[in-house]
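Support reply, case 0932

Customer input (verbatim):
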Amino acid sequence: MKRFSGLLNICMIIMALSLTGCGAPGVDISDEDVKKVADYSSDIVSQHNDKSDSRLVDLSTVKRKYREQLDLEIKRQNFRALEQAALQAESESGSEGSDSGSGEYVEPDISLAEAIGTTDFDIYYTDHEVSKSYPSSGSVSADDVYMGMTAAAGDTLLIMHINISNTEGLDRECDIIDLRPTFRVKINGENHTVQQTILPDDLSKFEGTIPAYSSADAVLISEVTEETAADIQSLSLIVRSADSRPEYKLE
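Our regenerated output:
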């Protein structure tokens, strides 16, 4: 402590001498300025004192943390902008099979199963539900282990049920996951993202054996605002591939 006080006194003496050189007129400073100088000098000295915590922060640390926060925010904004631009581009250009030049819906010339990439199964939409979570708590037992989804505040989940049917007399492996289809859902003419999940019944990730003359239920889930889900006038599914983007009217 004595060393710290001594260093502080030395700094104050040096500053005083620098302000009142030989033959130079004195410089008047206020009491408040004197206190600021003393505080700053104390912090500078304490940076070299292992037993004292300085109030000054290392400038390089501040700059590094600022750059990290700035980079993170820029990445978030770019992701949101790219996603919005993709949705907007799809809305403006329309999808193959639905754009007749007059704005009227035109039924695609290939089935939903063919658009996804398979001819071994019949795939068709059955119905939809709206829920804050999926699966719902009442649809699984306490012993089941599953990966669920929960909508953010103000949003809800639009869950579209899709039937995968094996119409042949032999058991068949259904590996839609290898086909890597991607989807968009159009609600009241506006495109929305279909969530990528690891749910075992997610249509885009579905894989498993479907027995002869049997079917399996799969889902596609989109998180939308509660306001949007409360007033669904029209519902369509867009299958995206490198070659086409057919649109299938669901409701």
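We compared this against your earlier run and they match. Two observations from our side: Confidence is low (pLDDT under 50) at residues 95-102, 141-145. The first helix runs from residue 2 to 19. Please reopen the case if you see a mismatch on your end.
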